[in-house]
Design the sequence.
């Protein structure tokens, strides 16, 4: 809460960065997927994370989101060290993410998918389910209303009653992002959200990213299309072989040698 | 005939309670709890030993632990508690570290091992002979009402408990808790990434399901007065599960229909009306064959069961539109 209002001018205040990941290593057995990568996102901005296949982008996201425990290094979020926290605790603090293979609850309708995220931990407690207090009812109504608004914003109200398993690839991506928003993220990690999505939807997802960022949400997006990266990112981070090899504006990164080398190597 | 019908009615209510309980764990949570029958058995045994009086007393022919003669509703509560505790213990061991496909195997192993242990350890629940002469509640009423009347009274009581179970299941059914549980069933990593902690939810659903199962076991033993390892073979779990899958996973009325078909129509009525064929036990075995075949047929031709899970429509959850008009599908 404290960082919310004070610095609207987005100048570098001494407040804690949204995310500071330092010297992250992620290993799978003998494979070192991330080898000492560092990444800081000081204020809400859209950061592109690019790099060739196997560079360790998804693994870095997993270390930040908590899906993989970092073998070494530190993840600080909003001034708090979250390195040891399991993923659900990080989500409760505001780190939300989508997956390279879109995660949608197939046996739930789209609307229910949003409610799972929106009701939060309080709303999904057993005690609440047994007691059904008026306070919980009010909360459920508010969440339902909010979910309806998010669906409208994403122009997917017409599929609200579809089961997750009935969606197209592009719809799954939209639902996944919409679901994250129901939890009021402070940091949104998107792992290739445009893959398998029809071109007109790609544009829309890009617009959504910009709009979300306007609401003071930092976004870290993994994407292969330079066109998309160029059009929506404030800043680009390049990874290769588990390390961060470049970091800067889209133009400066494109001019640099590192990108060409990484992709040719 | 009336005598027989009241017996069937009690059996059906007991089976239904168990089926709704297992559906929470299997349908909502996606946990293949093949050790489910253990929780029912725990309830039945505990009901028996706290109703039978001291071991070695009036019923000196059998040995068991505890031994108390609690007045009537209390043994039922003990049964529910026992089911819950056993389920919780099972859950703590199996749920967290294991992948789902291994879980199924571990549950099955537990069911088999428990049956062997209880059969072998005579001091626990009188071994493979089991416990008998468990007092029926308010048995003095049998003289006033007659045995037939008493049976119907018991059936009515069981039905009331069953309705209570239904209202619990329905209440939990539309809750945020249940939705989170289903989400974790569909995609564990995705649910966790949204702040859901599946480990806790699953232990809770195990505990609640276990309590209902224990209650059903208590009700059953209070009626039939006896309980032994033969009554809770691991295959009983498959019978309950077949009812759920045939009727419709996660649909309370589907589970109702499926349980009736499998537990009553196939198991009880065939035993009554079909002539005994071949050697003794053959027709019983054939019922199991039919259950197996049924399972396959359902999976091939109607994978979501006779009454599929009902879609929760946005209009039913939203305050703006009228909440009464719903589900016109
Ligand atoms: N679960 C896993 N088990 C073993 N190795 C893995 C696992 N996940 C990733 N790896 C390996 O770690 C390295 C980095 O993988 P990662 O998925 O992070 O790369 P990426 O940059 O996201 O690639 P892509 O663009 O293909 O998604 C690769 O060599 C990959 O084979
Ligand atoms: Mg990847």
Sequence:
């Amino acid at each position: 809460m404290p960082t919310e209002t004070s610095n609207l001018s987005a100048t570098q205040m001494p407040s804690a960065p949204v995310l500071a990941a330092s010297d992250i290593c992620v290993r799978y057995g003998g494979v070192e997927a991330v080898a000492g990568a560092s990444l800081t996102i000081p204020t809400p901005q859209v950061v592109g994370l690019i790099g060739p296949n196997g560079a360790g982008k998804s693994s870095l996201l997993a270390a930040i989101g908590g899906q993989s425990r970092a073998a070494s290094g530190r993840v600080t979020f909003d001034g708090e060290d979250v390195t040891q926290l399991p993923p659900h605790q990080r989500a409760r603090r505001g780190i939300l993410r989508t997956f390279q293979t879109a995660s949608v609850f197939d046996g739930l309708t789209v609307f229910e998918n949003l409610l799972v995220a929106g009701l939060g931990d309080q709303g999904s407690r057993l005690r609440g389910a047994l007691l059904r207090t008026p306070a919980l009812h009010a909360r459920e109504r508010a969440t339902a209303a909010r979910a309806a608004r998010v669906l409208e914003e994403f122009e997917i109200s017409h599929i609200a009653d579809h089961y997750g398993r009935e969606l197209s690839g592009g719809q799954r991506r939209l639902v996944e992002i919409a679901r994250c928003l129901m939890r009021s993220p402070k940091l949104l990690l998107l792992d290739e959200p445009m893959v398998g999505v029809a071109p007109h939807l790609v544009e829309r997802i890009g617009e959504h990213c910009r709009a979300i960022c306007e609401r003071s949400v930092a976004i870290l997006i993994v994407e292969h299309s330079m066109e998309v990266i160029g059009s929506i990112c404030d800043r680009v981070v390049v990874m290769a072989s588990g390390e961060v090899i470049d970091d800067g504006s889209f133009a400066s990164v494109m001019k640099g040698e590192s990108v060409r080398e990484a992709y040719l190597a | 005939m009336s005598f027989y019908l009241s017996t069937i009615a009690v059996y059906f209510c007991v089976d239904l309670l168990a089926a709704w309980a297992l559906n929470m764990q299997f349908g909502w949570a996606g946990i293949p709890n093949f050790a489910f029958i253990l929780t029912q058995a725990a309830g039945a045994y505990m009901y028996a030993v706290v109703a039978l009086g001291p071991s070695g007393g009036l019923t000196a022919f059998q040995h068991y632990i505890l031994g108390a003669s609690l007045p009537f509703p209390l043994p039922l509560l003990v049964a529910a508690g026992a089911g819950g505790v056993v389920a919780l213990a099972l859950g703590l061991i199996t749920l967290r570290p294991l992948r789902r496909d291994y879980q199924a195997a571990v549950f099955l192993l537990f069911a088999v091992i428990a049956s062997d242990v209880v059969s072998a350890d005579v001091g626990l629940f009188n071994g493979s002979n089991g416990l008998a002469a468990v007092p029926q509640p308010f048995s003095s009423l049998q003289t006033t009402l007659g045995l037939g009347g008493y049976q119907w009274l018991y059936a009515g009581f069981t039905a009331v408990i069953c309705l209570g179970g239904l209202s619990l299941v329905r209440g939990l059914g539309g809750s945020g808790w249940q939705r989170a549980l289903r989400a974790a069933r569909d995609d564990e990593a995705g649910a966790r990434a949204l702040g859901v902690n599946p480990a806790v939810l699953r232990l809770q659903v195990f505990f609640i399901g276990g309590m209902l199962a224990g209650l059903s076991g208590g009700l059953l033993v209070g009626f039939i007065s006896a309980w032994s390892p033969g009554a809770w073979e691991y295959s009983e779990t498959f019978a309950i599960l077949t009812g759920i899958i045939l009727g419709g996973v996660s649909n309370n009325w589907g589970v109702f229909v499926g349980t009736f078909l499998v537990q009553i129509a196939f198991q009880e009525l065939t035993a009554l009306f079909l002539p005994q064929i071949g050697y003794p036990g053959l027709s019983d075995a054939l019922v199991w064959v039919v259950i197996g075949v049924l399972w396959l047929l359902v999976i091939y031709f109607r994978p979501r069961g006779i009454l599929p899970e009902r879609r929760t429509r946005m209009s039913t959850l939203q305050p703006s539109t009228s909440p009464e008009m719903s589900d016109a599908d």
Observations:
- The longest strand of chain A covers residues 31-41.
- The radius of gyration of chain A is 19 Å.
- The beta strands of chain A are 19-28, 31-41, 46-50, 72-77, 80-81, 95-97, 187-191, 218-222, 235-240, 243-248.
